[in-house]
Design a protein that fits this description.
By secondary structure, this protein is of the alpha/beta class. The protein contains 14 helices and 19 strands.
Length: 427
């Protein structure tokens, strides 16, 4: 049984059928496939399983060559699966263009470019004129275009395609079926909910930002809300004004950063910057909208592209990012490998969730291969503290990050302390 029908859960179900085509696979979800982060993200599909090269090198320097190779292999496997399963996820191998909007960000970008080049990535450093020839914003001072191992997908199409392919392969999917309890049973695990009581031999938990059904999950991840807006389609004049002929996914290099891209019908998707943690970590419709954040994002979009003055915002939404204290996913097992999980992708899980699903199944099977021997699987992240310390710490960190952006990226005492403890982050 798989609990959770986002990317991790859907990939886990497919991989279970790959392992055993005759397996009885049931996927259950409290709402519907992709209703959390999987269906609400920007569609950046990056090979990294460590939340980027810099985070991976900082936390697992000795293992990083292996982690990089596992991520590249996973992305290649994902693309092969899309072809094999005949899923049209609107894959665009555009690469990603990170841009500097302040002078201090250029040094960080060059450092990241050196890391990426050293890891074997295809990277091009662009000056002001070169980056504006790619995407024209008066705010851009330079950029780094990573052309390899990253592209764009339509996350909604990917979720729908994975779901349809699962049903075609004989799996069962139960939507609108919440789970609120797991109990160890003589033959496996009893999975219970308001309208559910099922005995399963093995259970894969793929709940990500949603409330964890076991204590290790509740301590490992917190839900942080990210907000997104989408414009009406650009007309030919607007499209010419911004350029963007190569259709890269973009992100700016601030600590509080934006990500943005073109959709297949030439809308601009614009999100990020104001990640919000709500006291107690609620997830659901009550915290999915934030008028102040949406107005701020719309204003920032026009600061970046003043030539689009007057463009209409057609859609807005919010989605939960599950983050760990090391900003990369965590996996584990309980009850003699009857239950496994993979959660906490920190906003970079479109591809990494497939790898996390594979790790979870390997753990259930007792497979001690290279995927389950890596440190990020063998060692859990530092747990988040309970409330109210959790809310206070996250709020203080958000304020410190905003202050660092106002002071040319200089990290103050609080951020430097987190860095020394191995808990530091810059986004």
């Amino acid at each position: 049984m798989v609990v959770g029908a986002g990317f991790t859960g859907l990939w886990a179900a497919h991989q279970a059928l790959d392992d055993d085509p005759g397996a009885d696979v049931l996927v259950i979800d409290a709402s519907g496939p992709g209703d959390g982060a999987s269906g609400r993200n920007g569609g950046f599909c990056d090979a990294s399983i460590t939340h980027g090269i810099a985070n991976g090198m900082a936390r697992w320097p000795e293992e990083y060559p292996l982690l990089h190779r596992l991520g590249v292999d996973n992305l290649a496997g994902l693309l092969a699966d899309l072809q094999r399963l005949r899923i049209d996820a609107a894959w665009e191998p555009t690469g990603e263009l990170d841009v500097a909007t302040e002078q201090w960000q250029l040094d960080d970008l060059r450092e990241h470019a050196e890391m990426a080049t050293g890891a074997g990535e295809d990277v091009t450093v662009l000056d002001r004129d070169e980056v504006r020839a790619e995407v024209d914003s008066p705010t851009f001072r330079g950029g780094v275009w990573r052309r390899s191992n990253v592209g764009l997908v339509d996350p909604g199409r990917l979720v729908a395609g994975l779901r349809a392919a699962l049903l075609a392969r004989g799996a069962r999917i139960a939507d609108h079926t919440p789970v609120n309890r797991l109990d160890r049973s003589p033959n496996g695990v009893t999975v219970s909910g308001p309208s559910l009581a099922v005995d399963a031999g093995r259970v894969m938990l793929a709940t990500n930002a949603f409330p964890g059904l076991l204590a290790p999950l509740r301590r490992s991840v917190v839900p942080v809300y990210d907000h997104v807006l989408v414009t009406e389609p650009l007309d030919p004049g607007q499209r010419a004004a911004v350029g963007w002929a190569n259709r890269q996914g973009l992100g700016d290099a601030a600590n509080q950063f934006h990500y943005f891209r073109l959709t297949d019908d030439d809308r601009i998707l614009w999100g990020g910057y104001d990640a919000l943690y709500h006291y107690g970590g609620p997830v659901g419709p009550a915290v999915e909208r934030n008028d102040a954040t949406e107005r701020m994002l719309a204003s920032q979009l026009l600061e970046c592209f003043p030539q689009l003055e007057g463009i209409r915002i057609s859609h807005t939404w919010g989605g939960p990012i599950a983050t760990t204290t090391r900003f990369a996913f965590t996996a584990g097992t309980r009850w003699d490998r009857r239950v496994a999980w993979a959660v906490g992708y920190t906003g970079l899980g479109v591809a990494a969730s497939r790898f996390g699903a594979r790790v979870g199944l390997d753990l259930l099977a007792g497979d001690e291969g290279e995927r389950t021997r890596i440190s990020m699987v063998r060692r859990a992240p530092v747990p988040w503290p309970p409330e109210p310390v959790r809310w206070a710490g996250i709020t203080l960190t958000r304020r410190a990050i905003a202050k660092a952006d106002r002071h040319e990226g200089r990290r103050g005492p609080w951020l430097r302390l987190l860095d020394r403890l191995g808990l530091g982050f810059d986004s």
